[in-house]
Amino acid sequence: MKAAFFREHGGPERIEYGELPEPVPGPGQVRMKVRAGALNHLDIFVRNGIPGIPQALPHVMGSDGAGVIESTGPGVTRVKPGDEVVLNPGIHCGECEFCMRGEHSLCVAFRLIGEHIAGTYAEYVIAPAVNAYPKPAELTWEEAAAFPLTFLTAWRMLVTKARAVPGESLLIIGIGGGVAVAALQIAKRIGLTVYATSGSPAKLARAKELGADGVIDHAQTDFSREIRRLTGKRGVDIVLDSVGKATWKRSIASAAKGGRLLTCGATTGPDPETDLGRIFWNQLTVYGSTMGTHAEFAGMLPIFRDGKVKPVVDAVFPLAEARRAVARLEEKGQFGKIVLRVD
After folding, report:
1. What's the pLDDT score for residue 39?
2. Helix pair 178-190, 148-155: axis angle to 10 deg
3. Together in a domain, 271 and 193
């Protein structure tokens, strides 16, 4: 099969396009013919090498994918060949205490397609049958590939963790990436007042088109001071910050008393300066979150059914140009998801 992969860790020049053996589904698994796969920053971390997480080489990246079930392994009844599906990228053991409670993303053996096992930058991918969900009919293949990881992550943070309710306010730090854009769309669907920051006027303009109520150019001003001004010194109920080291202390300063801080990543570093005094004095709650459960994935899917929410696709590249697609991701100029089309 054709695939984009790397044989050793390093820069984008390590990405190759060529032939690899076709994978064979085992018991409880399906083989999906990939129609489209989406990029995530995780792909860059995996290619560069994550300490303590080895990959069998050559390794195919890509956690997000949509396609058609081509074949199934023994014992599979959930789906059948010909079904159009999207994949939930998170794989759980089903036996540990967290899985037994339905908290699949807390599984002691939690893994991700494209990180721990071969991913979707290929004509075929293997996944557990339980991870295959019906493709929303309202979405194109590219849109369907674009939502699983980012929308599930944003949904768990806003709906499950923060328990956001209509009328509350949300500040999204660094609009443009997949999780941030998904959070904006979900938040507007819930009925939140949403503010977003970016150092790019073009990204701020796109955020307003998607419904952001206020935008802040964090290259020109201290966003924590500006959000205080915009909210009459109150601050916002929820702050979503996956930037990390460069912004965390100002994110704390942006939260209202009793507010919630959400984090699912730290693209500028995991060791930020913090402000414990403000956290305990203002009685703030910090929620860390990774991916989500199968119940959350299923609960999220209906938001696409009326066509009012569609994943934002920044650009589409053919699979053969995966290296160029990843280069665009590393330039951080995208708004929404970069997708690989697999013909």
Report:
1. 97
2. 50
3. yes
CA angle at residue 230 from 172 to 310, to 5 degrees?
35
Query: Are residues 240 and 136 located together in one domain of the fold?
Result: no
C-beta neighbour count of 283 within 10 angstroms? 9
CATH code, domain with 99:
3.90.180.10
Q: Where are the beta strands (DSSP E) in 173-292?
A: 193-198, 214-217, 236-240, 255-263, 285-288
CA 46 and chain centroid, separation: 15
And the tokens for 318? 């053919």
What letter represents residue 6's amino acid?
F
pLDDT value, residue 268: 87
Which pLDDT does position 307 carry in this prediction? 82
Look at the chain and count its residues.
343
Residues 6 or more apart from 221 whose CB is under 8 A from it?
none
Q: What is the 3-state secondary structure (H, E, C) of 68-117?
A: EEEEECCCCCCCCCCCEEEECCEECCCCCHHHHCCCHHHCCCCEEECCCE
- 251 near 173, Cβ under 8 Å? yes
User: Where do we find the tokens 């300490």?
Assistant: 51
Whole-model pTM over 0.85 = yes
- Between CA 199 and CA 314 the distance in angstroms is 18
What residues pair up with 263 in beta bridges, in sequence order? 288
Helices 322-331 & 41-48 angle (0-180, nearest 10): 110
Q: Pick out the chain residues at pLDDT < 70.
A: none
Is the domain of 177 the same as that of 143? Answer: no
Burial environment of residue 306 by CB neighbours within 10 A (0 to 12, 13 to 18, 19 or more):
exposed
How many other β-carbons are positioned within 10 Å of the β-carbon of residue 44?
16
Helix (H, G, I), strand (E, B) or coil at 122: strand
Helices and strands in the chain, H and E counts:
11, 18
CA distance 165 to 179: 19
**Are residues 23 and 62 part of one domain?**
yes
Confidence at residue 308, expressed as pLDDT on a 0 to 100 scale: 82
